[in-house]
Amino acid sequence: MEASDEQLMLAYAGGDAAAFEALYARHKGPLYRFVLRSVKVAAEADEIFQDVWMRAIEARHRYEPKAKFRTWLYTIAHNRFVDHWRAKGLSVVPLEHEDGTVMDVPAGPSAEPHRRAEARQSVARLLDAIAALPAAQREAFLLHEESGLSVAEIAAITGSNEEAAKSRLRYAMNKLREAIDHD
Fold it and tell me: What is the Cα–Cα distance from 40 to 50, expressed in whole angstroms?
């Protein structure tokens, strides 16, 4: 049976470097996507991503599995975002697409060109709609969709109550549906 995140973190705190490697491998993709979609600037995302892991490493001896490791890790990320925005004199993340790029949509070689173009446009609309969400709603949405966190975990990470987290997620989903259906 595979060790839980919490067991791995405790093992890492006890000196098992391989346990950290396993944790990093499990969480690097979702955490990086969350960070990148939150700040939108790759260089800033890289810095924040590395800082989150450094803070996790530094806090390993203080880690207690009171909540899921994932909740603990994303709480570190949330706190790092707050520091990032404050340093910029902002209370929210910049919303605009900086480079205007559109994510490519995988399609088989037989896919019709107009279908591939429509799919790219749909993805672009979704990314624009996500970027246009208020910061708290965007964060709740990304934590839920990118990282698979529950409403309770989102509330714990963001320091809000479950009802506020649920409302933010519901408003985000409604705004995204409206943006996609409207176009």
Answer: 16
- For the chain, the residue count is 183
| Helical H segments across the chain, by residue range | 5-13, 17-39, 42-58, 69-87, 113-132, 135-145, 151-158, 162-182
Amino acid at 140: A
Residue 26, both tokens: 């499990």
pLDDT in tens, 67-89: 889 999 998 998 888 788 777 66
Question: What distance in Å separates the CA atoms of residue 151 and residue 137, rounded to the nearest whole number?
Answer: 12
**Domains of the chain: which residue ranges?**
5-182
Q: Which residue has the tokens 């800082």?
A: 51
Three-point CA angle 92, 32, 164, nearest 5° = 45
Token duo for residue 17: 């470097």
Q: What is the pLDDT of residue 112?
A: 57
Closest-CA residue to 24 (of 11, 2, 48, 8): 8
Topology, domain 5-182: Rna Polymerase Sigma Factor; Chain: A (1.10.1740)
Q: How far apart are CA 174 and CA 4, in angstroms?
A: 34
Q: How far apart are CA 19 and CA 14, in angstroms?
A: 10
DSSP 91: S
